[in-house]
Amino acid sequence: MEDAFGIPRIELQRRLEAEGIETRTFFYPSHRQKMFPQLSEADSRARFAVSWRLWERGLYIPSYIGMGDGVIARVADAIRGIQRAR
Questions:
Q1: Which pLDDT tens digit goes with each residue over 2-24?
Q2: What's the number of domains the chain is made of?
């Protein structure tokens, strides 16, 4: 996220929270769950680089069935404002 957006995920989350917009980080990668055979972290990062990157940098913003245009616009405007202010 920082590469393209210009600020770390945690900072974006803090700023959105200040706007009253809840977020959460991506789920821990499936291949790291206890139910799967475990690789060393180095092997895991090499084999599943994309899922590691998403987990470390990704976040969920509000989304739900029936989400109105006003809510969508509010979230998008907040994100654009944060990105411009960096």
A1: 567 888 999 999 999 999 999 99
A2: 1
Nearest Cα to Cα of residue 39 among 27, 52, 26:
52
Unique residue bearing structure tokens 């974006």: 12
Single-letter code of the amino acid located at 81: G
DSSP label at 86?
-
What's the CATH code of the domain at 72?
3.90.1150.10
Rounded Cα distance between 37 and 45, Å, is: 14
**pTM listed for this prediction:** 0.77
What is the number of helices (H) and of strands (E) in the chain? 5, 2
Separation CA 81–CA 65 (nearest Å): 25
Q: Which residue has the tokens 């998008």?
A: 76
